[in-house]
TrEMBL record:
The lineage of its organism: Eukaryota, Viridiplantae, Streptophyta, Embryophyta, Tracheophyta. SUPFAM superfamilies: Galactose-binding domain-like. PROSITE patterns: PITH (PS51532). One of its GO terms (cellular component) is cytoplasm. Belongs to the PITHD1 family. This is PITH domain-containing protein At3g04780. It comes from the Eukaryota. Gene3D superfamilies: PITH domain. Residues 5-176 form the PITH domain.
Amino acid sequence: MSAESASAVHKGQVDLLDFIDWSSVECLNQSTTHSLPNAIKQGYREDDGLHLESDADEQLLLYIPFTQVIKLYSIAVKGPEDEGPKTVKLWSNKEHMGFSNVNDFPPNDVAVLSPENLKGKPVLLKYVKFQNVRSLTIFIEDNQTESEITKVQKIQLYGSTVETTDMKGLKKIEDH
């Protein structure tokens, strides 16, 4: 990780890969030969030859549930300079979204990815909007050059589990 991207991953924040509920992960409009596990699963996402690719057009809609409640701090999306994602909208705890209703709900955050982001630099999210996340919906609306195919090489989610809050560190408020 480069020094400039280190600031987007705070102390105590971890890659949330181990907390994804793989049995319920979904991706709409993915190519059958270039599917979501290529970009998100350990071992696959490190292989530059593998990627997630859109099918009918440039849009992708991902649903990622977690095995426990998490706090999401930042997201890293790696992709090619030309066909990499550009506008990424995120929702917490929104189930059953499809392309027909994705614009009916205001997103919790919107990231417009720069060339630096596409090289793996994490994007800080509106942390207060992602405090008690049971699932994350990611809508990749377009790509860098408005081509018909969007390619995602790697997606990493950084945050913490809610259970990791150190309760011993909190001070009791005395009644006066």
